[in-house]
Amino acid sequence: MTGKSTRITVDLGSDELVKALKIAAVEHRRTVRDIVVEALAMWLASVQTPARKAPRDPATAVAEPSTADKDYRSMMETLNRYRGVGGK
């Protein structure tokens, strides 16, 4: 990335998530910043649906997790099992 850097502070709400993120960064020889930027970009791309898509009836709509959400949850569950963290 080039240009002016923009900083944010985010409370991830979980020490285990922060630890898993840092471990994954080391294991994959990436920076935490790179992983977070990539994850945010992927998530934003997955939620930006074309306006042409027919709107769903709010009365019958059921919120379904996106593929990216399922992949993320699966990844975190696997990582937590591997690390011995969490209840699963």
Explain what you see:
The protein is an all-alpha fold and 88 residues long. It has helices at residues 15-27, 32-47, 67-83. It is built from three helices and no strands. The longest helix has 17 residues, at 67-83. The termini are far apart.
List the helices and strands and how they pair.
Elements: H1 15-27, H2 32-47, H3 67-83
Summarize the structure.
The chain has three helices and no strands. The model has no long low-confidence stretch (mean pLDDT 78).
Number of strands: 0
Distance between the terminal alpha carbons, to the nearest Å? 38 Å
Mean pLDDT: 78
Oligomeric status of the shown chains?
A: single chain
Global structural class: mainly alpha
Q: Characterize the overall form.
A: globular
Helix count equals 3
Uncertain runs: none
What count of domains describes the coordinates?
1
Largest sheet descriptor = none
Order of helices and strands: HHH
- The radius of gyration computed from the alpha-carbon positions, rounded to a whole number of angstroms, is 17 Å
Helix content: 40-55%
β-strand percent reads under 5%
